[in-house]
Amino acid sequence: GKLVYAFGGGDAEGRTGMKDLLGGKGANLAEMASLGLPVPPGFTITTEVCTAFYANGRQYPDGLREEVASALAKVEEVVGARFGDASNPLLVSVRSGARASMPGMMDTVLNLGLNDETAKGLAERSGDERFAYDSYRRFIQMYADVVLGMAHHDFEEILDDYKMDRDYVLDTELSASDWRGVIAEYKRAVEHRLGEPFPQDPQAQLWGAIDAVFGSWMNERSKTYRRLNNIPEAWGTAVNVQAMVFGNMGQTSATGVAFTRDPSTGENAIYGEYLINAQGEDVVAGIRTPQSLTRDGRERQGTDGPSLEEAMPETYAELLSVFETLESHYRDMQDIEFTIQEGTLWMLQTRTGKRTAKAALKIAVDLCEEGKIDAREAVMRVDPSALDQLLHPTLDPDAPRDLLTRGLPASPGAASGEVVFSADEAEAAANAGRRVILVRVETSPEDIHGMHAAAGILTARGGMTSHAAVVARGMGRPCVCGAGDLRMEKDGEAVIAGGRRIGRGEAITIDGATGEVFFGAVPTVEPELSGDFATLMGWADGFRRMGVRANAETPLDAKTARGFGAEGIGLCRTEHMFFDAERILAVREMILSESESSRQAALAKLLPHQRSDFTELFTVMRGLPVTVRLLDPPLHEFLPQSDEEIAEVARAAGADPEAFSRRARQLEEQNPMLGHRGCRLGISYPEIYEMQVRALMEAACDVVAETGEAVVPEVMVPLVATRAELSRLRTRIEAVADAVFEEKGRRLDYLVGTMIELPRAALTADEIAGDAEFFSFGTNDLTQTTFGLSRDDAGSFLPAYVKNGLLPQDPFVSLDKEGVGALVRIAAEKGRAVKPDLKLGICGEHGGDPASIAFCEGVGLTYVSCSPYRVPIARLAAAQAAI
Ligand code: PEP
Ligand code: MG
């Protein structure tokens, strides 16, 4: 097929819908060109060429050279200049452009086509000798770095020495002949290092750059970025070759970047930065501090120089109308790059802008209210996982704080942690369970693994649109960047901020919403969930079919869950109610008792505690269903460990410590996760479950009597493998419930159901359904038992499986659809075949994972249940799955 697509000069061979083939950048350049916007002409080499290149041992497909040559000829014709022509040279940029944006991960070369001859030609033609040689030296530096594998700083050193020798401070002090001198030294350095001269042939330069950009698809940072963002390697990148335009041709030239709405807050106001007399990389590299695009933005963005609106009002007006065209064409906030060459505006890029979760919400709601999209689309626009950012704490406004310094508010959320100074350190500390703030002079794309591991990121340099700030926002990490008064100590052991020294390991707090940095750990408060959040969640609820419940045991968690919109409790893990000091003693006494009567005595001590727990829980959840799971303790978590602990239990029970110690040894298991757990315990010691059912039925009757509102208990039996287990326990549950109703003189509706968390239960679900009113898939255990993979031990080797591509994702995080999912599907079908109105839920961790929730929708589950903080994520994900 076609390998190269041309654009510019008023039309284009590609369009936006061809992102898979042309990459995001190429497709959007084509689209802008066909909208009639001013786009420098160029062409895109497709992602299929990249894929073929790697499939064929780094060989290009036949015909590529011919297609590139003819596309280049078209560019020459539109521009009216020739590639390599000494008197009127065409210069091009060569850039990557994958399907999904990968900011800063791959390579770019600008000013390509310059050599000793064409530089002279450019000087004459532009009438600006200094500009021409400055461009040439930039090209040598960039090309040597990206294509020839030399280091950027080798050239910085040469330049610094050159300036030092002549007492120059700023680059602007160098004249054209100075730049020629620097160029001579640069070329010498290249020849010295590589044993051959800097390539003078523009064709050789072009193919060198194309090779390098395709090559950068497989560099380490691209691979890491793809892994973190689930971007398949098979997608490949496109290469865009485009006529150069120059923002550095004097005071009527400029270059800039803009978001059509504020990417941090979502406010409907242009957010942009620009630099007069500069090239694009100068803005994003954070070398000079860019100025605000708009007059209003000067204050918001904290810049003091004139805005573009003030400096070039006519070009600004033209730019504004381009923004409007693009936003209404794409019906979404755009992230735009432009250059002004001697007063003429050129568009270099547009793409859907990355944004914080807060901005995503506001923009979706605003676009809907502006009539640009409908509610359905608004709901689809917000990534459920990104809501996590909003649900995170912010600084407690009443807490004392000790301000160290300030930077730019690059990514919202507050975080505190120990200071570390390298990405590797951050990763190691996070793996050891420590919360860290990664502090860097500037965050480069090589740092992404450390940014991912850190609780927050703080940098001394770089603007809001620096590549690293964009990456932090995408990851949802709080980030403060460009904190100008930050100084790293030479030995890399400490940082100086606000005149104070903070050593490695000392705590600081950053507020990514304000840009403030504080000494020590500042307490945080929970977020406020109203406004746009409530509006969008309301729309989502209108599209949602599945219910959303929470996994909660404590009244506090239950309140949080209700606040987040949970429609009931899908899993109350009763063993979690026994961990406090007084109760654990009675639990241990119960476990270690050898006779039923002493076990009954221990249970009698637990009953009032259980009853009051359930009373509180039912009171909070009035009117909503509450699924109480009967005790499922991996026994080892409850057994006393030391002699002192055994003695303490024996004392409380009035028993012989020797006997208890013997019994504790008897109860020790080789493999507690597959041992005397779940309903097996209830089968061995029915009195335990009887106590629990009594406590919960008494509590339910009391709350109904007290409030007059319904309480809907659902009694759930864990780890069932056979119908016989469930039948036996069900009989007991019903007997206790009847007894309580008799005593209380009141009957309540309640359900008895089971967890499905063993393959045998899933495969025999038609039998089990005979004794169950509901199933709840315990996909934590179902994953453990389907893979034969210990939940508690998988952490030591599973990450390597994911890293090496043996598993697409950690199956304990995102449901394994093919294996575990097949069992869920079988159980759901078999269960419903017997009992069409069987309620089906999921309460493993997967109940809060958007991809797993989409699977649950496909299987037709009744509800998902997840931890309280994930309830909003689940509501939105369930809505998207249903749309
Ligand atoms: C499960 O196994 O998925 C489950 C919810 O139960 P637990 O995590 O308590 O074993
Ligand atoms: Mg389980």
UniProtKB/TrEMBL annotation:
Catalytic residues identified in the record: H467 (tele-phosphohistidine intermediate), C843 (proton donor)
Binding site for Mg(2+): E757, D781
Domain spans labelled PEP-utilising enzyme C-terminal: 530-881
Catalytic activity: pyruvate + phosphate + ATP = phosphoenolpyruvate + AMP + diphosphate + H(+)
EC assignment: 2.7.9.1
An example Gene Ontology molecular-function term: ATP binding
Domain Pyruvate phosphate dikinase AMP/ATP-binding: 20-56, 65-301, 316-365
Keyword Cell cycle: no
Known cofactor(s): Mg(2+)
Domain PEP-utilising enzyme mobile: 435-515
Entry superkingdom: Bacteria
UniProtKB keywords: ATP-binding, Kinase, Magnesium, Metal-binding, Nucleotide-binding, Pyruvate, Transferase
Residues involved in substrate binding: R573, R629, E757, G778, T779, N780, D781
InterPro entries: ATP_grasp_subdomain_1, PEP-util_enz_mobile_dom, PEP_util_AS, PEP_util_C, PEP_util_CS, Phosphohistidine_dom_sf, PPDK_AMP/ATP-bd, Pyruvate_phosphate_dikinase
Family: Belongs to the PEP-utilizing enzyme family.
Matches recorded under NCBIfam families: PRK05878.1, pyru_phos_dikin
Job of this protein: Catalyzes the reversible phosphorylation of pyruvate and phosphate.
The protein, known as: Pyruvate, phosphate dikinase
